[in-house]
Amino acid sequence: MILPSIILHRATGWRKKRLIGLLTSLLCPPIIGAGDADEDSERMGVRVTTARSQWSTLSSALGRIEVAAWRAITSPQVSMALLAALLIISLLGGLLPQAAPDVQPGSPRYQEWRGQMRPPWNAAADTLEALGLFRVFQSRLFYLFMAVIAVVAVLRLASLWIPSWALAPPRETSTRDFTLLCDEAGALEEISLTLRDMGLGVVRQISFDGARYTAARRVGVARSMPGLLYLGVLALLLAAVIEWRFGWVGSSLDLALGETRPLGVESGLAARLEQIDLLPLADGSLQRFDSHVSLIRGAHVESRVVLGLNRRATYQGFSLYQVGFGPAVRISARGASGQPLALQRTVGDTSAQGVLRLRLSGRQQEQLLTIPRADMVVRLVYYPSLPARGSPMTLGTKPPSRALHVQLLRGSTGKLLAERFLEQAGEVSSADVSVDISFEYSVTIRPEREPGLPLAAIGGLLILAGIVCQVIWPPREAWLIVRPEDQGCHCRLIASRADADAPWLTALVAALSGGAHV
Amino acid sequence: MYDSGYKITSSLWGTGSGLAVSLGVALALGAAASSWASKERLWRLVLATACALGLVVLVGLARNTGAWPSNTIAVALAAVGVTTGVWGLVHRPSDRLAESLHALVVALGLGALLLVPLAPLSEEGGRGLLFGFAEVAFALSCAALWHGMISSVVIRRQPGQAAAKAALGSALLLLSTALLLHGVGAQWSRGAYWSWEPLACWWLTAWAVVALAVLGVRRLGWSGRRATIALWLVAGFVLLVLLGAVPLVQWLGLNGRYWTG
């Protein structure tokens, strides 16, 4: 109730219009908070805090709460607390295994993921799971943290970009007293000019109880540009919300050459892998790995795109990424006289084909094929030395080594006729049938719709620009109290204690007290 | 990539680069010696040559063997050492001890290339130019902190706030750039600019630690010994992240696989 009233007032400048006493007191923000460095500051803060239309104990108390809340939000301690929370969260992400966002606890995929967990986490898995530490980035606490960051970013951005918005002094302050030998108007003019020389401008002045209270801070570009940091944070968070609400990420699809698979309901498209361009280096590592993919709607090829390492393709608002690769084999069979024999899968598409291409995924996989005309079963067992499926595509990386165990069995009796371990292309023969096998690649592609991507890119750039501006133009704020006296004006300069030794404050004090009695 | 016992001199290309690294070490040691002869111009010339040799070798290693700072400890040490020297050349230390320390750090970094086997920590070599630039920015930020440490040693009689402010500010900017480049690279390669994968989490941890120190020094007025201690702790932590994040992630069996869904 308190903070919205501050925002309403400061955004609209609505100060004079009164509703009821309590609300009016809330709408009148202080420029100097209670509880400042010493007794004078305390008294001054209380006076300004209670310089409201309706002086009452309640409005005074609310004013103090208002100052404390506003002071807390803009304090470096809150920034440090948020950063510390981010530190803990990112440490958890760096130390603990995290389930994929689309894998729900209890689902078969989640159980499979839990089963693959390695020491030391598998021993403590139940405890960690009960604490929700395997889904840190999907937890309500994490979303709450992001919401807090968003609120703080909005308020800090407003404090930087709303020209008349002045802040209460921090809790720990450094004060300097001096006397200017001129009347109040002269003192204020001199103070204003000196502040301008230091890159500061007066953002608010009020009179109360015979004293003039002035809040000064950076003006112009130096004040507004550091706000890009908060704007960037908001843009990133908004982009995440847009992605969550309107974005779509399809399942990763493994495609062997010539294979067609649907991209997902959202797209209504299917993808067929037409060709792979592979350019190995002398040591066998990959220099280029491009895949040519046809996008098909119904029976019609709508487009043909080329995906590659760090190379995406877009079509009708969808993006396609080549996120991995894996092994595949090309199999054909011929009879004793060299005539081609048709092969059939035992599951899935069981149509007879002269040449079959099989994707081999997983750590170990068995596949069974039949050659009906020869009463033959071909059993393939793949042994990758490295996990191959979904391996991130990396330049300069050798493809994983592999071995394929091939057995030829008589279909009617199950008798083993021939077997061989293949590490490269080869032939396995029995008396009447030869099976030719060569190694190929499959690719893993993922379709996405990313409406928040441009905003995220802008957000990232704004954050970087904002950090640069924060380093160049760190916050610079000062508060002054000018009280006319018999011989001149008594002035009190208040600044954050962190700025006590800052060159700008030293120069400001020197300039102000140059013709004054300190 | 290469086998676990591979050293820089193990191939024909490596023999040439090994000679270059040896020359770089000798030059850096010569620069350390020349700093005590009060010949600043000579120190700059010799150290700049050593750093240039080191940078050429590092770029060549990345290009020819896929050895990057994040996947090879020796390369990480060399990158931090050489870039610390670059920071010293840019900022012109005003003290002999500082000049000497900068040169010694370059010598130690390049020496690591000669002495430590280029054992790959990960089969994932260079994952593209953007990831490479991100690692360069990370190494530069680490070097900025070590440059600040050297400066804080030298100006120990003065308040350490100025050195800490400059070093931490530079490191924060460079780490932010590294994270941004990492995000762009991740978007291009797998369609997810930020997916909380373990290595990115460790980089974010390093960023948060540096940001905390920056806030402490710039907004809370940490100065003197407190600022110096903060700078040293942060420099040590960021170097540890650079050297240890990948092996730790692999030891824990995380491998960042979950992002593929």
Describe the structure.
The complex is a heterodimer of chains A (518) and B (261). In chain A, 33% of the residues lie in helices and 33% in strands. Chain A contains 13 helices and 24 strands. In chain A, the strands form four sheets. In chain A, strands 4, 5, 10, 11, 12, 14, 17, 20 and 21 form a nine-stranded antiparallel beta sheet that branches. In chain A, strands 2-3-22-23-1-24 form a six-stranded antiparallel beta sheet, covered by helices on one side. Chain A has a five-stranded antiparallel beta sheet with strand order 13-15-16-18-19, with no helix packed on it. In chain A, α2 (21-27) runs parallel beside α4 (57-73) and α8 (140-161) packs across α11. Chain B has 261 residues and is an all-alpha fold. Chain B has eight helices and no strands. Chain B has helices at residues 12-35, 40-65, 73-91, 96-115, 129-154, 161-190, 198-218, 224-251. The two termini of chain B are 28 Å apart. In chain B, 62% of the residues are buried. Residues 1-9 and 257-261 of chain B have low confidence and may be disordered. At the A-B interface, α5, β11, β21 and α12 of A face α6, α7 and α8 of B.
Give a concise summary:
With 518 residues, chain A is α+β, with helices and mostly antiparallel strands. Chain A is 33% helix and 33% strand.
How much of the sequence lies in strands of chain B comes to under 5%
**Biggest sheet features of chain A:** 9 strands, antiparallel
**Parts with pLDDT < 50 across at least 5 consecutive residues of chain A:** 1-5, 10-39, 42-54, 386-397
> Which H/E pattern describes the elements of chain B?
HHHHHHHH
- Please mark out the parts of chain B with pLDDT under 50 across 5 or more consecutive residues, or reply none: 1-9, 257-261
Global morphology of chain A: elongated
* Structural class designation of chain A: alpha+beta
Question: Rg of chain A from C-alpha positions?
Answer: 36 Å
Count of DSSP helices of chain A?
13
End-to-end gap of chain A: 43 Å
For the secondary structure, the number of strands of chain B is 0
Largest sheet of chain B: none
